[in-house]
Structure formats: structure tokens, C-alpha cells
Amino acid sequence: MQLAVNIDHIATLRNARNERQPDPVAAALIAELAGASGIVCHLREDRRHIQDRDLERLREAVTTKLDLEMAMTEEMQQIAIRTKPELITLVPEKRRELTTEGGFDVAGHYRKLVEYIRPVQDHGIEVSLFIEPEKEAVDLAAKAGADIVELHTGPYSLKQSVGDRKAEILRIQSAARFAREQGLRVVAGHGLDYDNVIPFRTIEEIEEVSIGHALIARAALTGMDTAVRDMLHLIR
Ligand code: PXP
After folding, report:
1. Are 87 and 147 in contact (CB under 8 A)?
2. Residues known to be catalytic
């Protein structure tokens, strides 16, 4: 299993003082050198962490795979087409949320989604949808023309008991299997850390996990290189 590293919170830390350090681009390059398969950044409507200039610089520097997380707006579609990340991940976005709170409502936005995806793909950019691990959402994501689904592991990460966690893992596994049968590639993310990531090793349909907060929190104490290598050690 591979690891995509979300570097948003390097920018959060930098923005806390309106300084130039730490630099998300430097963090991205260290993560790549340590073995990350991709770099993820979320350009939010309110630009609370990653800024437009960061995205431009990341595009110039990242050589593995740049994944632009974004809301399904006209503005973001234009930015994506101009910047040309290897892929975009469509997420629901609420201004007041601390982090992405739920999966993309594929059924509720189906018509718009179908029209939105194609022009992006026509520019050589793959499209991933961040969705709940549910059959209906997977089915509609495939029908809408997505290349990849990212299964939302946030609810799993919040479960406390062993039984509840196991049930959630089975739900994710079954959605992952169904997605592969529909011809989709499957990744997973949100709320994963150095403990709760372990069971994902057994879900062979999931090719990559996308991790931000726990990894950047660890990196603040141990350094980016060690934080990435320690995570890779756990998931391989
Ligand atoms: N995947 C998606 C779609 C996300 O929105 C986020 C948070 O930005 C992540 C993965 C990473 O989540 P976390 O920061 O909890 O590791």
C-alpha cells in the first residue's frame, strides 16, 4: 500500500505567523524523498491554509503525483485546468468546518458532477471522488465517470470499541471490493493515524492511504522524513 501525504497543516503553521516558514513545498519534497507516492493539498475557498501561490509552487516541484483536493466550483475547475495536477479529489466543503466532515453527496449532485468531470479529464487530469464507503455512492461515482474513489475513513477513526471498528473496516472493505468490480481505483483517507491505519494493510483493493493531520503532527516532533518513513513502515 502506498502513502499520499497531505501537507495542508504545514501551511496552517506558517500562516499562524504570516511568515514564510515552514514551507509546504519543502515539506512535500522531503515527503517524496522519504517514499511518499503523492502529495495532497486542499485549496479551500477561504484559503485558510494552502494559498494559490503554494499550489503553483507545488506544481513546479512535485514529481510523484500532485492531488488537488477541492470543492466542485467553477473557480476550482479553472484553477485545476490551469495548474494541471495529476489528479483532483472532489470533496464537499463547508466554510465553518474544521476539516472535511463527510463524503461527497454523489446522488445529490449527480447531474452537475457528470458535466464537471469530463472537461477536467479532457485536460489529462484524473478525477477522484471522496465518498462514504457505501454501495450506492460507489455505483454513482463509477457511472458519473470518476477514475478513483477515496473512501471516507473518518467514521472508522472515531469508533472506540474493537467491535465497532471491525464492523466499519468490513464496510470499507466491501465498498472497496465493489468499487474495483466497477473498474474504479480505490484509495482511503481521513482521520488515519499510526495506530488505526494497521488494519488497512489487509484490504488489498485499497492501493493508497491519504494522511495529513497525524503525520504532520508527528513531523512537528520527529521531522518530516522520519514521520513519513515510520508510516510507510506500518503500511507495508
Ligand atoms: N482525504 C480527504 C479527502 C481529506 O479531506 C483529508 C483532510 O484534508 C484527508 C484525506 C486527510 O485527513 P487527515 O488530515 O485526518 O489525515
Report:
1. yes
2. 42, 69, 190
The tens digit of pLDDT for each residue in 176-218 reads 999 999 999 999 999 999 999 999 999 999 999 999 999 999 9
Distance of alpha carbon 41 from alpha carbon 9, whole angstroms: 9
Ligand 1 center to residue 226 CA distance, Å?
A: 20
Q: What is the pTM of this model?
A: 0.96
Longest dimension (CA), the chain: 48
Distance 154 CA to ligand 1 centre (A): 8
Q: Is 103 left (phi over 0), alpha (psi -120 to 50) or beta?
A: beta
210 lines ligand 1 (CB under 6 A): yes
On whether the CB atoms of residues 59 and 84 are closer than 8 A, the answer is yes
Does the Cβ of 91 fall within 6 Å of ligand 1? yes
Residue 123 is part of which domain span? 2-235
pLDDT per position as a tens digit, 27-61: 999 999 999 999 999 999 999 999 999 999 999 99
CATH of the domain at 103: 3.20.20.70
* Residue that is written with C-alpha cell 481505483 in the block: 185
31 close to 7: Cβ distance less than 8 angstroms: yes
CA-to-CA dists, residue 45 to 4, 72, 151, angstroms: 22, 11, 23
Atom number of ligand 1 nearest to Cα 211: 16
Tally of domains within the chain: 1
Distance 214 CA to ligand 1 centre (A): 10
Confidence grade of residue 97 (pLDDT, cut at 50, 70, 90): confident
